[in-house]
Amino acid sequence: SMFEPLKETVALLRTYGDKMPEEVHLQLQNLPERWENNKRLCLRVAESAAPLQAAEATIIRKKCQ
Length: 65
Known about the structure:
Layout: H1 4-15, H2 22-64
């Protein structure tokens, strides 16, 4: 649903005779899947960084005390 406005804009431009390259249509089809993959990657990176952040927070706490 997040990419529907883009699809609607392309459809509107098509009604006015402006043709988009086939590459644009393929990208619009692939966007939702790529977005989901990107979100999963962000979650994995955040999960792997959490222990490092916790260790750094511990070091900073010890320095402050």
